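Any chance you could type out some protein's one-letter sequence along with its backbone structure tokens so I can compare the two?
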Amino acid sequence: MLELFLTFLKIGAVSFGGGYGMISLLQEEVLLHGWLTSEEILNFIAVSESTPGPIAINMATFVGSSQYGFIGGLIATLGVVLPSFLIILIIASVIKGLLNFAGVKAFLGGVRPVVIALIISTAFTMFLSVLFSFNHIGDQILFDYKAVIILAFLVATNLLVKKFAKKTLSPIILILISAVLGMIFYGLIG
């Protein structure tokens, strides 16, 4: 359990850009430790995204609880949250107007492109894995037409609502639609 805590402490300490920026590092660490498979990670990302709360905390809780139950979830969550909490506490209590310093602006300016690259990398990796079952170099590419149909339906529905109702669908509604379509296409109902 100490390894779980230290791993998530490290993830929380070196991740910038919120939960989406953290996913790549989290995926790498979890696979390195053999806690989950690539497919399980993708499932956990989907569940983390569709449940209330920040994705990083949800992921840490899910991974920790998959390894050591409730206590593991608590330990992993504490590990991922502790660095940010301490940094914000120090900044809020000691340093006023931190963002006005040129060095801080330069630091954040340098970190921003890395965060964007990590988010794009994660999205591309998930795209390849979900639609083509491609997780590693050398894997056979298997086209998942069911996932493509669900994605196309969601995009088309969102575009039609945007065009005719002049508003966008709530992400919650899109998640619910995709869950029902997933159950239909993958055989859980009907």
Remarks:
- Residues 55-94 form the longest helix (40 residues).
